[in-house]
């Protein structure tokens, strides 16, 4: 076991995400629209759309929502969306990564400046924060799905890179490319996966004072509340 301190950011993110399930639906809708605009409405020939539809199924997006967004993408009036990643330094040297998807890059850039003006921190140059993170697939499994030893063998055979746990969940770590494949293999064995997503996992964490920790959480939550922002990762210990 690697110890759950390495995955502390997932727990904070998960708590916020549970309270904002609508943001997940919104992000997937944007991905569906963008992928259809770029590659057409047939998932057989459009890999990006196929991945977006897999995410929609995992998030339990209603089928009518999916169909509506595919049709919406065909309209000339519908804007396309761009994926953006911002890197920030928070308080006490903590690194923060913000994933956003927007139809107005200028608005998003302005929102980032407003966030740091109000809550502190600075916008960093690309690569200066992300080098300390790895993008990985993370599958969350409830502890009612089996004992640790048995699940460890199952996830290893399914192609996972790592296996960890916290108080409530088992966490299965995969490469980005194998996230959905590993999830499907586990489900074929009767294991229910409560969530599967791409995460930025910190290679090292930064310990900071209580004051800096409080200020960072205020900055992170301000960023998460922005309309264009999908998810925020950090390496605060």
Automatic annotation (TrEMBL):
Region listing for Disordered, in residue ranges: 1-21
One cellular component term from this protein's GO annotations in UniProt: cytosol
All residue ranges annotated as the TACO1/YebC-like N-terminal domain in the record: 5-75
Alphabetically ordered keywords of this record: Cytoplasm, DNA-binding, Transcription, Transcription regulation
Keyword Cytoplasm: yes
Gene3D superfamilies: 1.10.10.200, 3.30.70.980
An annotated GO BP: regulation of DNA-templated transcription
GO MF terms, alphabetically ordered: DNA binding
InterPro entries according to UniProt: Integrase-like_N, TACO1_YebC-like_2nd/3rd_dom, TACO1_YebC_N, Transcrip_reg_TACO1-like, Transcrip_reg_TACO1-like_dom3, YebC-like
Subcellular location: Cytoplasm
Domain TACO1/YebC-like second and third as annotated: residue spans: 82-236
Keyword Thylakoid (UniProt): no
Family note: Belongs to the TACO1 family.
Protein name as it appears in the record: Probable transcriptional regulatory protein SNE_A18750
């Amino acid at each position: 076991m690697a110890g759950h301190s390495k995955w502390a950011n997932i727990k904070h993110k998960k708590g916020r995400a549970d309270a904002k399930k609508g943001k997940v639906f919104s992000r997937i809708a944007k991905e569906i629209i963008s992928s259809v605009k770029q590659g057409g409405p047939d998932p057989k020939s459009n890999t990006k759309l196929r991945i977006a539809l897999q995410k929609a199924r995992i998030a339990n997006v209603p089928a009518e929502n999916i169909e509506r967004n595919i049709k919406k993408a065909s309209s000339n009036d519908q804007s396309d969306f761009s994926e953006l990643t911002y890197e920030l330094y928070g308080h006490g040297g903590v690194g923060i990564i913000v994933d956003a998807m927007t139809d107005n890059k200028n608005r998003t850039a302005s929102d980032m400046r407003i966030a740091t003006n109000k809550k502190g921190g600075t916008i960093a140059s690309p690569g200066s924060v992300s080098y300390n993170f790895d993008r990985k697939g993370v599958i969350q499994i409830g502890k009612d799905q089996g004992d640790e030893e048995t699940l460890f063998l199952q996830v290893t055979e399914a192609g996972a890179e790592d296996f960890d746990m916290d108080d409530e969940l088992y966490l299965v770590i995969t490469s980005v490319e194998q996230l959905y494949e590993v999830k499907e293999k586990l489900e074929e064995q009767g294991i229910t996966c409560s969530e599967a997503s791409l995460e930025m996992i910190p290679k090292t964490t930064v310990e900071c004072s209580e004051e800096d920790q409080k200020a960072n959480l205020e900055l992170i939550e301000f960023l998460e509340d922005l309309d264009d922002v999908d998810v925020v990762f950090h390496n605060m210990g």
